[in-house]
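anyone seen this seq b4? input:
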Amino acid sequence: MKHIAIIGAGGFVGSALCRAYDKYNFDITKVNRRNYNQCRNAKYDVVINAAMPSKRFWALNNPIDDVRETVVKTARLLYEWNCEKFVQISSISAETQLSMPYGVHKRAAEVLVENNKNSLIIRLGALYGQGLTKSALFDLVNKNHIYVDIHSEYNYIDIDYVANWIFDNIELTGIQNVGARDTISLKEVSKGIWDNPSYEGRREKLFFENISQDMPSSREVLKYMRSINKVNS
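predicted toks r here
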């Protein structure tokens, strides 16, 4: 039985991993700020770093703080925790947004991890699902002002699908891309949710060039948005 530490167990990705693990023959330690120092002295088969910030625009305005939260914290986990394998939950931005602090810092953290011979870096596309509390999707449903062009396109994928994919592929190494096989625009997602959304900002298209066609379609996000909209109505 593998002993796995999930760093950031209370976050969006970490919570999904904690929901999924009981399907697998794993012994899980859920690590958060309160028990971090207590847990770090144990030995683990796998440490999963799911604690990296996901605030792209915050990073743009607070680049030094983002370095601390992304690069420095990753270094501390690598050098202070005892494990056979290290898994870094990263972002598509480490591949597609290297002109912005968020993407640069995500990539810098990946470089640290790549020096570990037994490591897995998982770059995630845009996410949705249980526990989502920020992003353009969240703003659409709650009719908040959106700080990105409404015609932007993303490869949305369900967080619970991602959590199961991670555990199913925990033996892999190197960099693995996990996202939908296609993209969908916020404009299309907004139909029937908020027909005239308030927005400003750059137009983006975030999509992995090399992605398995076995991955779900980004259009699955429409079911999620309809269900959330119904609850909020």
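The longest strand covers residues 82-91. The first helix runs from residue 12 to 20. kinda curious what u guys think
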